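Example record used in the benchmark description.
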Amino acid sequence: MSMDFNIFMNDIVRQAREEITQAGYQELKTAEEVEEALGRKGTTLVMVNSVCGCAGGVARPAAAYAIHYDKRPDHLVTVFAGQDKEATEKARSYFTNYPPSSPSFALLKGGKICTMIERHQIEGHTPAEVVAKLQEEFDKYCEEI
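Model output (structure tokens):
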């Protein structure tokens, strides 16, 4: 039974990773990759991925659709909570004054947190509502493409 469960969970994690990378997000798996990515100039959207239902049903679809917009972040990256712990912890160290939350989105500019969309703003909402929240933040902090 546990062998089947591990195979099942590995498949769910693989699918969750593929969904977000196919949408154009760079997956960060180490603290060093996070430091390099979040230290870049411009705006960076960090999607904190997870295997929960609101990640698959709301956050990942919102992440994919929100970026098709006149204003969008310069860089799109993702860390996977519960999977790539070192990378996730390092990313969360940039999210000052926000508690750990997954799934979630953090918008940074020049490595400094601008805003977050936390789990409580995702769970129980539709992907379209989260897309609207993300694009509202893009309007505030991102340049037109």
